[in-house]
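Quick one:
INPUT:
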C-alpha cells in the first residue's frame, strides 16, 4: 500500500454542513424501497412513550413471565495487560427489562447513543447533521436491506472487484448487471471508475450506487477516496462503504479517513455515503451486532424492511454490549481495538514469514495492512493467464493435500477465472501456518506438473 496523503489541507476541503434533501432519495429508492409498508404495530411504538398514554397497542409479553430474573457475566478489561484481569457486570433490573422485551427496530436507545458517539469520535460526524444510526443483525443484514431498498431487479451496479462474496450473492439474486471497477495496491481505481462512467451507454439506466468492499487487505489511500467521492458528486451516485476491518488497521502509516468522514470535508453536501460498521471482528462474532450510518431516508427504508422481517436486533445482545462498552468508555474501546490490531499484525507477520519461506516464487502478493487475510496470485503456468486458474488447484489438489483456502473466483462480481486465492491467518498457530503453506507449495508444484521444485525456497528465518 502506498502511504496515505499526510496533509489534508491540500485537498481543498469544503467542510460541508449542508446535506442532500430528503426528496433527493425518492428517485434512488427501488420499487420495493418505495412501496414497502411499515408495520402497523411497530410504527406506533414511539407513541407509547407519550406522557399520560395508557397503551393497549402491542402484544408484548408481560415481563413477570420471563424466566430470566438476573444476568451476571465477566469481561476482560482493556486497561489491563493480564487476560486474567476481568470485570464482573450485572444488569440492573431496568437494563434487564429493556434487554428482554421488544424494542424499536432501530435499536435500544443507550446502544444507539453509544454508536452516535463513536461515529463522532472516529469520523467527526455529529448527531443532528441529518444522518442516523440503525442497528442490525451484523452488518451483512443491513447491507442486504440497503441493497433491496436501493436496487431493483436487473439494475446496473458499480462494484469494486474483488468484493466480499456474501455481498455479491445479494446482487446476484437480484440479477443485477454488475459492472466491475478495478482495484490495485492503492485501492479502488478512480481512473477505471471514471472511464466506466464517461463511457456509460446512453441506452443503459445509470448506476445509482457503488459498493466498496474487498477481501484483499489493501487499504485505499486518501487520494483515491477523495477522487471517488468527487466522482460520486460529479456523476450522482451513492457509496456503500462496508468497513468491517476499520478497527483492525495495522499499517505503517496513519489510517486514512473513511468516506463517511471525508464527504463532510470535501463535498458541497453530505448524504452520498452509507457506512456499515461491524462489532463482529472486535467484540463478538456470535452476538451479531453491526450498525449503519448515513442518510435518514435510506435508513428509514431499512427500518421498514426490518419491522416486516426480523422485527429488530436482539435487545439483550445490544444491552450486554452497551454494558461493557459504556463501562470502558471510548478511550477503553480505542485501547481494546489497538490491542487487537497489534495481535493481528503479529499474526500477519508470522504468515508473511511463512510465505517468504515456502511460496516466494510460487505466488505474488501484497502485504495486507488491515484485517485477517492474505490475497495472493498463484503462478501455475507461464503460458497464459487463463491457465493460472486457482479453482482446481485449491479445491482439488490443495484440499487433497490437507490445506483449505478460498479460490478468488468467489469474490469476483462476474465469477470469472482467476489465479487469486484468499487465505485467513486469524485462528492458526505458527506451526499450522508454516505447515499449511508447506502443503500449499507442494500442491502448486503438483498442479504445475513439475517433477521437482523450480524455485528454491528461501532459508528459514
Amino acid at each position: 500500500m502506498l502511504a496515505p496523503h499526510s496533509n489534508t489541507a491540500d485537498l481543498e476541503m469544503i467542510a460541508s454542513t449542508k446535506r442532500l434533501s430528503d426528496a433527493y432519495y425518492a428517485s434512488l429508492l427501488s420499487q420495493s424501497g418505495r412501496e414497502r409498508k411499515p408495520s402497523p404495530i411497530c410504527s406506533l411504538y414511539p407513541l407509547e412513550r407519550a406522557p399520560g398514554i395508557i397503551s393497549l397497542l402491542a402484544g408484548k409479553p408481560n415481563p413477570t413471565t420471563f424466566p430470566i430474573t438476573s444476568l451476571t457475566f465477566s469481561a476482560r478489561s482493556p486497561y489491563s495487560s493480564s487476560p486474567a484481569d476481568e470485570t464482573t457486570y450485572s444488569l440492573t433490573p431496568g437494563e434487564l427489562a429493556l434487554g428482554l422485551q421488544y424494542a424499536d427496530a432501530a435499536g435500544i436507545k443507550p446502544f444507539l447513543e453509544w454508536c452516535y458517539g463513536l461515529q463522532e469520535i472516529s469520523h467527526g460526524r455529529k448527531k443532528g447533521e441529518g444522518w442516523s444510526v440503525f442497528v442490525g443483525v451484523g452488518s451483512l443484514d443491513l447491507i442486504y436491506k440497503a441493497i433491496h431498498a436501493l436496487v431493483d431487479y436487473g439494475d446496473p451496479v458499480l462494484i469494486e472487484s474483488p468484493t466480499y462474496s456474501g455481498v455479491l450473492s445479494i446482487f446476484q439474486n437480484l440479477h443485477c448487471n454488475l459492472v466491475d471497477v478495478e482495484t490495485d495496491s492503492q485501492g479502488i481505481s478512480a481512473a477505471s471508475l471514471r472511464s466506466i462512467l464517461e463511457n456509460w451507454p446512453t441506452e443503459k439506466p445509470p448506476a445509482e450506487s457503488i459498493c466498496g468492499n474487498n477481501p484483499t487487505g489493501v487499504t485505499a489511500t486518501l487520494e483515491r477516496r477523495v477522487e471517488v467521492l468527487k466522482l460520486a458528486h460529479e456523476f450522482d451516485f451513492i457509496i456503500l462503504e462496508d468497513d468491517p476491518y476499520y478497527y483492525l488497521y495495522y499499517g505503517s502509516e496513519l489510517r486514512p479517513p473513511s468516506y463517511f468522514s471525508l464527504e463532510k470535508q470535501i463535498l458541497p453536501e453530505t448524504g452520498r455515503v452509507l457506512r456499515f460498521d461491524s462489532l463482529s471482528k472486535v467484540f463478538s462474532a456470535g452476538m451479531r451486532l453491526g450498525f449503519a450510518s448515513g442518510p435518514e431516508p435510506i435508513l428509514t427504508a431499512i427500518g421498514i424492511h426490518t419491522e416486516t422481517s426480523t422485527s429488530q436486533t436482539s435487545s439483550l445482545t445490544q444491552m450486554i454490549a452497551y454494558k461493557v462498552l459504556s463501562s470502558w468508555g471510548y478511550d477503553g474501546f480505542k485501547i481494546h481495538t489497538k490491542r487487537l490490531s497489534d495481535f493481528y499484525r503479529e499474526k500477519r507477520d508470522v504468515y508473511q514469514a511463512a510465505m517468504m519461506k515456502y511460496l516466494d516464487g510460487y505466488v505474488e502478493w501484497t502485504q495486507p495492512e488491515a484485517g485477517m487475510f492474505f490475497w495472493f496470485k498463484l503462478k501455475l503456468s507461464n503460458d497464459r493467464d487463463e491457465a493460472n486458474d486457482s479453482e482446481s488447484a485449491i479445491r482439488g489438489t490443495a484440499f487433497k493435500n490437507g490445506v483449505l483456502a478460498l479460490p478468488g473466483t468467489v469474490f469476483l462480481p462476474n465469477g470469472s477465472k482467476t489465479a487469486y486465492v484468499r487465505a485467513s491467518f486469524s485462528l492458526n498457530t505458527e506451526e499450522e501456518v508454516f505447515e499449511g503453506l508447506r502443503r500449499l507449495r507442494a500442491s502448486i508444484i503438483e498442479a504445475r506438473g513439475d517433477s521437482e521444485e523450480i524455485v528454491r525456497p528461501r532459508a528459514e528465518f
